[in-house]
Design brief:
The protein is 68% helix and 5% strand. The radius of gyration is 22 Å and the shape is elongated. Strand 3 and strand 4 form a beta hairpin. It has 317 residues and is mainly α. The chain has one domain (23-312). 38% of the residues are buried. A 4-stranded mixed β-sheet has the order 1-2-4-3, with helices on both faces.
């Protein structure tokens, strides 16, 4: 009887793994988010043109920023965080786990990085599976047991499978550009309409650009937060299916969150700008601003993982 139950549970896990792939719900949300962001971006460009800014100038600046965002943002982020690419000899266990997960997920192996910090965390970067990177901190490697580490890395590999890192990178471009335009209009308004000699119509145009830029930034911010929260749930599900151990990920999330809350704030500042890409936000302390968090609450993630554990064990219909 015990053998039958073990075989049944194994088959349940294998069946779940065979269904592993891109999250349809996430794909729909990513397309919808990019569509809405595209619309508000068109409105921003229209406002700039209406205010007298040269369309060619807008296109060149926006194009250059987009290229930097797509092809260099991951390298800039890794360098800023002080992450270092490691070889198999330097981190054999880390490489072995990532390689095993990529075989199961049918992915090319990403570059492997380690970030030297006591903050336990991990993240994935890259515009495509072929250019992806996975980074774990030394604090994470010291803290977690092998099953927990595999679950965390399974979460990051799922981000690569879903390509949500690329969508988050593109989506954040709109917010970045809108913020830059608003600052330019505020401090260098003369560039939009002739400097000190501008008339009321030109001043109204600058005010319109500032208003539209602020609205575009606000809309982009909210859409990014909503997409970011869902992509974390999707990556948790992917890790649970890929490893067959939702409880291991739950245990890792509890450990990581509890430790981050005790890390001095000055040690967290370097990572705050990348908070949306970490498995646990770099600002884990509870506050009223958590309603705008780029991650779902830990309690909800644990509840979802508990349901997945029951499903994989065949105890839930």
């Amino acid at each position: 009887m015990a053998g039958f139950l073990a075989a049944f549970c194994h088959n349940q896990r294998m069946a779940a793994r065979s269904k592993f792939g891109k999250d349809t719900g996430l794909q729909v949300r990513m397309v919808f988010t990019m569509f809405l962001l595209g619309l508000v971006y068109v409105v921003l460009v229209g406002a700039l043109i209406a205010a007298g800014t040269a369309a060619v100038t807008i296109a060149i600046i926006a194009g250059l920023l987009l290229l930097i965002q797509l092809f260099a943002s991951d390298k800039i982020a890794l360098a800023t965080l002080g992450a270092r690419q490691v070889s198999v000899d330097e981190a054999p266990q880390l490489h072995a786990i990532i390689e095993r997960l990529c075989v199961q997920a049918d992915l090319p192996k990403p570059k492997v990085y380690v970030m030297n910090t006591q903050m336990p965390n991990a993240f994935a970067m890259g515009r495509s599976p072929k250019s992806a990177s996975v980074c774990a901190t030394t604090g994470l490697l010291r803290m977690l047991d092998p099953h927990e580490l595999e679950a965390v890395l399974g979460h990051e590999v799922t981000h690569i499978v879903n390509r949500d890192v690329m969508v988050m990178t593109l989506a954040s471009f709109f917010a970045t550009l809108a913020a830059m335009v608003a600052q330019f209009a505020l401090f260098f308004g003369g560039g939009f309409g002739g400097g000190y000699g501008r008339n009321r119509e030109q001043e109204a145009g600058i005010a319109m650009v500032m208003l539209v830029s602020i609205l575009v930034y606000a809309i982009s911010f909210l859409l990014l937060r909503a997409l970011s929260r869902y992509r974390e749930f999707a990556a948790d599900r992917g890790s649970a299916v890929l490893t067959g151990r939702p409880s291991a990920l739950a245990s890792a999330l509890i450990k990581v969150t509890g430790t981050i809350e005790r890390i001095p704030s000055q040690d967290m500042r370097r990572a705050e700008g990348m908070s949306a890409f970490f498995i646990v936000p770099a600002r884990a302390k509870k506050s009223l601003m958590n309603i705008f968090s780029d991650h779902p609450p830990l309690e909800k993630r644990l509840q979802a993982l508990s349901r997945l554990e029951a499903q994989l064990q065949g105890t839930s219909s």
